[in-house]
C-alpha cells in the first residue's frame, strides 16, 4: 500500500502514521516538517517566499508566515499538541548565479531565515536542517519515526 | 492570472514566431535540420506544475535567461543530459564524450547556445511588437528540473498563483543520433497586456 502524500509547490499537507509526506524538487524553496512524534501527527509545507506582507498577496500557502500558521492550525485540529511539536527543514539552495549579480538571487537564504523566524515565534524547536548549497532536493518525511529523507542528484542521500 | 482563450491563442502565435527564430539559430549553430512543434500553452496552479513539465525530479540541463524591458519574462531551454552532450560535442567539434557536469568548455558552449537562441526569440518578438526587450546573461543549471523551475519562478521575489508557460519542442534526428530540447517562455503578468496590445486583444 502506498501511503505517500505528495505536497506540491506553494502547498502543505498534514497526516497521521502510516502516511509519509513528500515534496519533489526543492530548489530555493523550503520544505518544512512540523510533527508531534508522540501522537504520530505531522505536516509538510513547500514554501516559496519569505513573507506575505512584502508581497502582492495571492495564495497564502506561498509564504512562510501564512503557510505555517495554516498548517499549525490543521495540525492542532488533527490532535497534535503544542508543547510536543518539533520541526525539520531542507531546501533554500541557490540554483543559478548570474555573473556579478549573485546578491539578487539570494532568495533561498531569505526563505531559510524567514522559516527559522516563524518557528521561533511559534516556539517550535528546529531540531535538524539541511539548507543552502547549489543543488536541488527531494524530501520524504516519515511520520512514524520523525526521519526526513533527503535525495539529491549529485550530492548523495541523507537522513536528518 | 486569468487569461482568456482568445488571448492564449494570440500568445501561442507570438511564441510560435519567436521560437521559430530560436530554432533557426539552433539549426545554423548545429548545421542541421531542426523540427519544431507548435507551442503548447499551460496556465497551471503552482502545486500542479508537473502537469506542464512532467516529473519534477528528472535530471535536466537548463539554460535560463531573463527577458527584460517592455514585456518581461523568463526564457529557458531545457535538455536531457544525453541531448546536451551531443549538442556540446557538435558545438565544440569534438568527437569524444564530454562530462557535462564538470567540463567548463561545455558550460560556456551551452551558455552561448542559450544566449543565441533567446536573442533570436526576443529579436522576433521585438521586431513585430515594437517593444524594446533585452536579455540577461545566461545562467546554466544541471539538476532536478523542479528545483530549477522553483528558483526561476521566485527569482524576482514574487510569483503568481497560476503560472503561464509556453513550451515548444525542438528536435533533430541525424544518421546516428537523435536529440531534443524544450524551449520555455514564462511571461510576467504585465507582459501579456503589452504583447497582446499590439494586436488590440
Give me the number of helical elements of chain A: 2
Write down the domain tally of chain B: 1
Q: Helix proportion of residues of chain B, in percent?
A: 40-55%
CA-CA gap between termini of chain B: 16 Å
Order of helices and strands of chain B: HEEHEEHHEEHEEH
How many E strands of chain B? 8
Annotation, overall tally of beta strands of chain A = 10
Gross CATH architecture of chain A: 2-Layer Sandwich
- Major sheet of chain A: 5 strands, mixed
When the domains of chain A are counted, the total is 1
Taking all residues together, what is the mean pLDDT of chain A?
90
User: Roughly how much helix do the residues of chain A carry, as a percent range?
Assistant: 10-25%
CATH topology of chain B: Chemotaxis protein chec
Tell me the strand percentage band of chain A.
35-45%
Shape of chain A: globular
Task: Summarize this structure briefly.
The complex is a heterodimer of chains A (160) and B (201). Chain A has helices at 64-78, 107-121; strands at residues 4-6, 11-16, 20-26, 30-36, 41-47, 86-91, 126-131, 137-142, 147-151, 157-159.
Give structural notes.
The complex is a heterodimer of chains A (160) and B (201). Chain A has 160 residues and is an alpha+beta fold. Chain A has one domain: 60s Ribosomal Protein L30, Chain: A. Chain A contains 2 helices and 10 strands; from the N terminus they run βββββαβαββββ. Chain A has a 5-stranded mixed sheet with strand order 1-3-8-9-10, with no helix packed on it. In chain A, β6, α2 and β7 form a beta-alpha-beta unit. The longest helix of chain A is centred in the middle third of the chain and has 15 residues. Chain A is globular, with a radius of gyration of 15 Å. The two termini of chain A are 25 Å apart. The model of chain A has no long low-confidence stretch (mean pLDDT 90). The model of chain B has no long low-confidence stretch (mean pLDDT 87). Chain B is globular and about 50 Å long. In chain B, strands 1, 2, 3, 4, 5, 6, 7 and 8 form an 8-stranded antiparallel sheet that branches. Helix content of chain B is 42%, strand content 28%. By secondary structure, chain B is α+β, with helices and mostly antiparallel strands. In chain B, β7 and β8 form a beta hairpin. Chain B has 6 helices and 8 strands. Chain B has a single domain, classed as Chemotaxis protein chec, CATH 3.40.1550. The longest helix of chain B has 26 residues. Chain B starts with a helix and ends with a helix.
Amino acid at each position: 500500500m502506498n501511503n505517500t502524500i505528495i505536497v506540491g509547490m506553494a502547498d502543505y499537507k498534514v497526516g497521521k502514521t502510516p502516511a509519509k509526506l513528500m515534496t519533489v524538487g526543492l530548489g530555493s524553496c523550503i520544505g518544512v516538517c512540523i510533527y508531534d512524534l508522540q501522537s504520530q501527527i505531522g505536516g509538510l509545507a513547500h514554501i516559496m517566499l519569505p513573507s506575505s506582507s512584502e508581497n502582492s498577496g495571492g495564495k497564502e500557502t506561498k509564504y512562510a508566515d501564512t503557510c505555517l500558521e495554516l498548517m499549525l492550525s490543521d495540525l492542532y485540529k488533527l490532535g497534535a499538541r503544542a508543547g510536543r511539536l518539533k520541526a525539520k527543514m531542507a531546501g533554500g539552495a541557490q540554483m543559478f548565479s548570474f555573473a556579478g549579480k549573485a546578491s539578487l538571487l539570494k532568495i533561498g537564504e531569505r526563505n531559510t531565515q524567514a522559516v527559522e523566524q516563524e518557528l521561533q515565534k511559534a516556539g517550535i524547536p528546529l531540531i535538524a536542517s539541511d539548507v543552502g548549497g547549489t543543488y536541488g532536493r527531494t524530501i520524504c518525511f516519515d511520520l512514524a519515526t520523525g526521519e526526513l529523507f533527503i535525495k539529491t542528484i549529485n550530492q548523495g542521500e541523507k537522513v536528518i | 492570472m486569468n487569461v482568456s482563450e482568445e488571448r492564449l491563442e494570440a500568445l501561442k502565435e507570438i511564441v510560435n514566431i519567436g521560437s521559430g527564430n530560436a530554432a533557426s539559430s539552433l539549426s545554423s549553430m548545429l548545421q542541421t535540420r531542426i523540427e519544431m512543434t507548435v507551442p503548447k500553452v499551460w496556465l497551471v496552479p503552482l502545486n500542479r506544475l508537473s502537469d506542464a513539465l512532467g516529473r519534477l525530479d528528472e535530471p535536466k540541463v537548463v539554460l535560463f535567461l531573463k527577458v527584460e524591458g517592455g514585456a518581461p519574462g523568463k526564457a529557458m531551454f531545457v535538455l536531457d543530459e544525453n541531448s546536451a552532450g551531443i549538442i556540446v560535442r557538435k558545438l565544440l567539434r569534438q568527437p569524444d564524450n564530454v562530462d557535462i557536469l564538470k567540463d567548463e568548455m561545455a558550460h560556456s558552449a551551452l551558455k552561448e547556445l542559450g544566449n543565441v537562441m533567446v536573442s533570436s526569440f526576443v529579436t522576433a518578438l521585438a521586431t513585430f511588437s515594437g517593444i524594446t526587450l533585452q536579455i540577461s546573461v545566461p545562467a546554466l543549471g544541471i539538476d532536478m528540473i523542479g528545483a530549477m523551475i522553483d528558483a526561476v519562478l521566485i527569482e524576482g521575489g514574487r510569483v503568481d498563483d497560476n503560472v503561464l508557460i509556453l513550451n515548444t519542442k525542438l528536435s533533430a534526428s541525424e544518421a546516428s543520433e537523435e536529440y531534443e530540447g524544450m524551449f520555455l517562455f514564462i511571461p510576467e503578468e504585465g507582459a501579456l497586456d503589452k504583447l497582446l496590445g499590439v494586436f488590440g486583444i
